[in-house]
Design brief:
The complex is a heterodimer of chains A (287) and B (788).
Chain A lengths: L6 E3 L4 H11 L3 E4 L5 H6 L7 E4 L9 E4 L2 E5 L4 H6 L1 H6 L1 H7 L5 H6 L2 H7 L5 H8 L3 E6 L2 E5 L1 H4 E3 L2 E2 L6 E8 L5 E8 L9 E10 L2 E10 L6 E2 L1 H7 L9 H10 L11 H23 L1
Parallel strand pairs in A: 1-3, 2-3
Antiparallel strand pairs in A: 4-5, 5-10, 6-7, 6-10, 8-9, 11-12, 12-13, 13-14
Helix pairs in contact in A: 11-12
Chain B lengths: L17 H5 L15 E7 L5 E7 L1 H4 L4 E6 H4 L27 E2 L5 E7 L2 H10 L1 E6 L5 H11 L13 E5 L12 H9 L2 E12 L8 E7 L4 E6 L4 H12 L6 E4 L15 H13 L2 E5 L2 H7 L3 E12 L5 E11 L12 H7 L8 E9 L15 H16 L4 H8 L8 E2 L5 E2 L4 H12 L1 H13 L3 E14 L8 E6 L5 E5 L8 H13 L6 E4 L17 H28 L6 E4 L2 E4 L2 E7 H9 L14 E5 L5 E14 L6 E11 L6 H21 L29 E5 L16 H17 L14 H17 L1
Parallel strand pairs in B: 1-12, 10-11, 14-15, 20-21, 27-28
Antiparallel strand pairs in B: 1-5, 2-4, 2-6, 3-5, 7-15, 8-13, 9-10, 9-12, 13-14, 16-17, 18-26, 19-20, 19-25, 22-23, 23-24, 26-27
The chains are: A alpha+beta (287), B alpha+beta (788).
């Protein structure tokens, strides 16, 4: 369990990192917190000629409240995301989700951008980004571009970043007053990747749902929204919602994966319960 | 013997090991760095069974930093003898080989070893070895079923053995077991109730936090082999190394400093370690191999993986009249010792804390193309896993509560000494007392009411009991351990023995026994183990013997030394030694506070001023005591688990877990509880999380901690303890306790789950009980009921 040989680069500015990526492209790999990459390197399941370490680039580590968004740098540690007061106040779904990520040692190294770019379908942050309609900002030698989560997450462990691009930051919209959020997750053990999980946001005005977002993780090849159901929820009285029924509807169209830990149908069964619990919690918080 | 609680013995003395360990200053095998050491990486078989048709190492040899690449052709023929002290040379054994030769027999078998300047370079070399196989049909229970493997004469794991059946009992290899029991057949034919069930436990593993590993160098000028090893038994490593390469034991120096767990996996050197030893000797080099986690999981030795069918006959009142049992094991290709079967122990210990009446046991073990079986904390523990489930299943079948059924069959004090159906004699066990204490602590009767109430709200609560007798053997080399004890010139006490603590707190507990018995400050006791250059021959730490056997020897050695100290002090103080006391290293005349002498002054007399002593007192202050332990030592315990099952997710939460035990006098209650807790956590892991899986081609599917799930602190409840103290007749009154937590916890947990699932009529007879299995158990009978 020792990696194959590679060259190591540790640029200290974003410009240098982008330049290095531009020259090595597909022969390079970017290192963020390393919590997923380093183990697969050690098993020689990931091989490349150049490792570009982003850990010495301070300009990628920030949390800023800008207009209607909270913008977070890709190299912001998960432990900071989980404890930052600006995030807790304006994007509490991120704060809530962070507690489920691994263990504190992992969160001390792992980064927001690393988790998103790694695109593990069972990870928490991709579902939060999906639920909140975040905007992912990519940067490359040809400039920057911004994409939606739907465009960003292509499949298991696959995001839309080109070989020469890296994730720079992510904008999370602030939902404002009357909102409630909840992340619910089931995992074999505390800190494991989710067997099934869901991130939910609800906004209620005058007792009526005016915005809803339900995003599952661990239930498909990428985080997935229950869009049709969300549309149905908007306009309904929050107090009249049958959470169990809504939970069942939320998973009805999903075909979750099978593995040695849980079958597809068990995942759906668990997902319905989690969605029901998350909606109930979020509505309570919103009203 | 009566219970003791002295200055040290009986106290929860803080561990002497911890300061260095918790500050990161332990010295494990990987912390030893010799100059010029070459690092070893193995090429391992990617297929379960096949011929090696091409093996070309030239590209690996060309890698800068690769020193050499060794294959079977370089090493295997030089192996002289290969057997273990603890097993003996006459035990039947499947073929053994340092590296795979001509064919491979499980995924992970070592084929070649690359020696390089670093492990990184060695792995680069491994990748470049060109090897081709002609795959053959693997012999797998997962593929052909147990009977299919046993009957397959066309595909043999070991053609040299002539059959895939490794051992069958009763049979020519059995220890004098009867071939049948007609009296049992009569009982089964006439009993009021006869219940049969088969219990299976899956493959799960020791998984020590520190993997295996070894540093070896051969000094050809001094003709001396030096080994630092992560082992439970330094003398076993010494003997195995010496006989493998054909030198004397005394030419081999083995050191094991801190060892990060073993659980049986490190009782004997691994095949890879022996290959490294042979390579170091042949090349005259310093070599190191540190097993990585992937290697440890796929090739470090597997465990459990067996089933047991029991038929129990009772009378109308629920009294057991007879038991028939048949045990089957899949022991893999290259078990760690002998043929790797635990069957003779399973059969012997199966009656546990109950009267079984008429009894018959049979077993069959098969070789398969999987990783071989290794000892794992209570290697025979299927007896408890099956028996204690059978107690519940039988109780349910005859309409009796499991606690009541146990009460009617448990060995009671008036039956002692009690001879089991297998001829074991219990003298100081208290299974009835621990059963009642556990039932009291858990609030058994109140729980039944709470459970009924919870069910009306759709909550699934369950309770499970499990009782056992923990045996420890004191025969062969395991029954005669020695402690050397001396007082140095400065008055400090130096103790040396052949134990091999790998987490059991031996440094603390044996020091407690010595300090207490001798009458010195524990800080004055310097304790050394794990070094064959200074320690008397021993069998290491394993088999739950350290407290009873080493502890007994430490106590007797301390008595001898104390007597000598008092005899010398009596001369100096001009008093009778009968009138002397020693406490905290000061000898004083009772009733004369002014007449004292320190241990340092006694030592000065013993080593330098001995001319004042009579001829009958030899100079010096050193003693040795080698104990002769009883052939069997026993403790007992009852575990109780309360669980809640979530019917939607299939998650099981352990709400309460408690243990009532009787290990005799406790040297250190904290350590006793720590031993139990660690074992219980392994039971929680085995029942709910850990599962080593092969596919039908013999490919391991759970090769990292991402898929092989160990329990963490978050999955473990606070464990409650009840202690019954009934001293054994051995010196100190100590009993075995090291393995019981792992032996007895699975059945308590499984029984609790079965109890919780009673409303569904679920047949709970195998593990792991992960969410999927739980949900399937809940759905199974319900869906079939719907179809009726």
């Amino acid at each position: 369990m020792k990696p194959a040989p590679f060259d190591y680069l540790a640029p200290t500015s974003l410009a240098d990192a982008v330049e290095a990526l531009g020259s090595y492209g597909a022969d390079a790999k970017v290192l963020a917190g390393g919590q997923s990459l380093v183990p697969v390197m050690a098993m020689r399941m990931s091989r490349f000629d150049h490792l570009i370490d982003l850990n010495r680039i301070p300009e990628l580590d920030f949390v800023r409240h800008e207009a209607a968004d909270v913008v977070i740098g890709a190299m912001t540690r998960e432990s900071r995301v989980g404890s930052d007061p600006t995030i807790a106040e304006n994007v509490p779904l991120l704060t809530d989700a962070t507690q489920y990520i691994g263990h504190f040692q992992i969160r001390n190294r792992g980064t927001l951008g690393g988790s998103l770019a790694h695109a593990d379908p069972a990870a928490e942050y991709p579902a939060v980004a999906m639920a909140l309609d975040a905007t992912m900002h990519l940067v490359g030698p040809d400039g920057s571009r911004s994409v939606s989560p739907e465009e960003f997450f292509l499949g298991p462990m696959t995001c839309c970043a080109e070989d020469e691009e890296l994730l720079h930051s992510v904008s999370f919209p602030v939902w404002g007053p009357g909102s409630g959020f909840s992340v619910q997750e089931f995992a074999r053990r505390a800190g494991d990747f989710a067997t099934a999980g869901v991130a939910v946001g609800i906004r209620v005005a005058d007792g009526v749902v005016d915005k809803a977002a339900i995003a599952f993780f661990g239930m498909a090849s990428a985080p997935v929204r229950a869009r049709e159901l969300e549309i149905e929820l908007v306009g309904q009285k929050a107090m009249d919602l049958d959470f169990q029924e809504v939970g069942n509807q939320a998973v009805a169209h999903l075909q979750p994966p099978d593995d040695i830990h849980a079958s597809s149908s068990l995942r759906r069964q668990i997902g319905a319960q989690l969605a029901s619990r998350a909606l109930s919690t979020a509505v309570k918080e919103a009203t | 013997m009566t219970a003791v609680a002295g200055r040290y013995v009986g106290q929860s003395v803080k561990r002497r090991e911890d300061a260095r360990l918790v500050t990161g200053h332990g010295r494990f095998v990987e912390d030893v760095a010799w100059p010029g050491t070459l690092h070893v990486a193995f090429l391992r078989s990617p297929i379960a069974r096949g011929r090696i048709v091409n093996l070309d190492v030239s590209a690996a040899l060309a890698v800068p930093g690769v020193h050499s690449v060794l294959t079977a052709a370089d090493l295997n023929e030089h192996a002289r003898e290969w057997w273990q002290n603890m097993i003996g040379k006459d035990a039947p054994m499947p073929p053994k080989r340092l590296l795979a030769e001509h064919d491979v027999r499980f995924v992970g078998e070592a084929i070649a070893m690359v020696l390089a300047t670093s492990r990184y370079v060695a792995e680069d070399g491994v990748e470049l070895i060109d090897v081709d196989f002609e795959a053959e049909t693997p012999v797998l229970v997962e593929r052909a079923g147990f009977e299919g493997v046993a009957a397959d004469d066309a595909n043999l794991v070991h053609p040299e053995w002539g059959s895939n059946v490794a051992q069958a009992l009763p049979g020519p290899m059995g220890p004098g077991m009867p071939l049948d029991n007609p009296a049992l057949e009569a009982v089964l034919a006439s009993a009021a109730h006869v219940v049969t069930e088969t219990f299976t436990q899956h493959r799960y593993l020791c998984v020590p936090m520190e993997s295996q590993g070894i540093n070896v160098r051969w000094d050809r000028h001094r003709e001396r082999l030096e080994i630092v090893s992560a082992t439970q038994s330094p003398h076993e490593v010494r003997s195995c190394a010496a006989r493998l390469i054909g030198i004397n034991d005394s030419q081999v120096h083995v050191v094991a400093d801190d060892v990060g767990g073993g659980f049986g996996q490190k009782m004997f050197p691994a095949t890879e370690e022996l290959a490294v030893i042979m390579a170091a000797y042949r090349l005259g080099a310093a070599l190191r191999w540190i097993e990585d986690r992937n290697e440890n999981l796929i090739a470090g030795g597997h465990a459990r993986n067996e089933d047991l069918t029991m038929t129990v006959a009772t009378d109308e009142s629920g009294k057991i009249l007879g038991v028939r049992a048949h045990h089957r094991e899949d022991i893999g290709a290259f078990p760690a010792y002998a043929v790797g079967s635990s069957a003779s122990s399973v059969g012997m210990y199966l009656p546990g804390p109950y009267g079984f009446g008429e009894y018959f046991f049979s077993s069959e073990a098969v070789f398969t193309n999987t990783c071989g079986r290794v000892a794992y904390r209570g290697p025979w523990m299927m007896e408890s896993v099956a028996r204690e489930q059978m107690m519940d299943v039988t109780a349910l079948a005859i309409g009796m509560d499991p606690l009541e059924f146990r009460r009617r069959n448990v060995v009671t004090p008036d039956q002692l000494p009690f001879t089991t159906s297998t001829g074991l004699v219990y003298e100081t066990v208290t299974p009835q007392a621990t059963l009642e204490q556990a039932a009291e602590m858990v609030g058994y009767d109140a729980f039944r009411a709470e459970q009924a109430e919870a069910r009306t709200h759709g909550r699934l609560l369950g309770i499970g009991l499990s009782s056992y007798i923990e045996p420890s053997v004191g025969f062969g080399i395991m029954g005669a351990e020695q402690v050397d004890l001396r007082i140095d010139y400065d008055g400090s006490v130096v103790a040396t023995t052949g134990s091999g603590s790998h987490g059991q707190s031996v440094e603390t507990t044996l020091s407690q026994v010595i300090a207490e018995t001798l009458g010195v400050d524990i800080d004055k006791v310097v304790f050394t183990q794990g070094d064959t250059a200074v320690a008397p021959f021993g069998s290491g730490t394993g088999g739950s013997r350290t407290a009873a056997v080493y502890g007994g020897a430490a106590r007797e050695a301390s008595v001898l030394l104390r007597n000598k100290v008092l005899a010398i002090a009596a001369e100096v103080l001009e008093a009778s030694s009968d009138d002397l006391d020693m406490d905290l290293g000061v000898v004083a005349v009772r009733g004369n506070p002014g007449a004292t002498i320190s241990l340092a002054d006694v030592a000065a007399v013993a080593y330098a001023g001995y001319t004042i002593l009579p001829e009958s007192i030899e100079p010096g202050l050193d003693v040795s005591f080698r104990i002769r332990a009883p052939m069997f030592m026993f403790s007992n315990a009852t575990h109780a688990a309360v669980v809640e099952v979530d019917p939607v997710t299939g998650a099981v939460k352990v709400l309460r877990y408690l243990v009532s035990e009787d290990c005799g006098n406790m040297i250190n209650p904290m350590v006793v509880e720590g031993q139990i807790a660690g074992g219980v956590v392994q039971g929680i892991g085995g029942v709910f999380y850990e599962n080593f899986v092969y596919d039908a081609d013999g490919n391991p599917l759970t090769t990292t901690f991402l898929d092989y799930l160990l329990p963490t602190a978050a999955e473990v409840p606070t464990i409650e303890y009840g202690h019954i103290v009934t001293p054994s007749p051995t010196p100190g009154g100590f009993k075995p306790i090291g393995e019981g937590g792992a032996i007895n916890s699975p059945a308590a947990l499984i029984n609790a789950v079965r109890d919780a699932l009673t409303p569904f009529g679920a047949r709970v007879v195998s593990q792991p009980l992960g969410p999927q299995q739980i949900v399937d158990l809940i759905k199974g009978p319900a869906s079939s009921a719907e179809s009726i």
